[in-house]
Amino acid sequence: MRTYNKQQNDYMKAQALLETLEEEAKEAEQQFIIDNNIKNPDGSTPTRTWAIDDDELAEKAIEEFGAIFDESELGRSLTAARTAFKEAEEKLLSYALSIAPAGPRATLEKATKTNWKIREQIIEAVLKLDTRTVKR
Description:
- The protein is mainly α.
- It is built from 5 helices and no strands.
- It has helices at about 5-35, 55-70, 75-100, 100-115, 115-130.
- Helix 1 runs antiparallel to helix 3 and helix 4 crosses helix 5 (about 115-130).
- The longest helix has 30 residues, at about 5-35.
- The protein is elongated, with a radius of gyration of 20 Å.
- It starts with 5 loop residues before the first helix and ends in an 8-residue tail after the last helix.
C-alpha cells in the first residue's frame, strides 16, 4: 500500500473539496437558469449563464448570478477552497523540488513558475510517489 506524506494528502484533500464545490456551483448556476426560466431563442435551456445565446440576457444573468453566488455560503466556501488548493499545490511542488536531484532542481523550479505543462507533470509524478521510497 502506498504511503503519502502531508503535502500529498493535503493536496488530494484540497483538490477533492474544490472539485465537489465547483460541481455544486455548477448545479447552483443551472438552478438559477431554471428558476429564472431562461431559454435560448431555439427554446433550449442553457446549461450555464455563459451559454445563453442572447448576449444581453447572458450579461444580465452572469451579473445577477455572480452577485448572488458571491454572497452565498457556497460562493465563500468555493473561494476559500480555491485559496487552500493553491496553497496545497505550492507546498506539494516545493516538496517535489526538495527531493529532485540538485542538478536539474533550479531548472525545474524556474519551469514550475513559467510552464504550466511541466508544473502539471511534476504534480502528477509526485502524487504517484510512495514516500516510503524517498531517502532523506
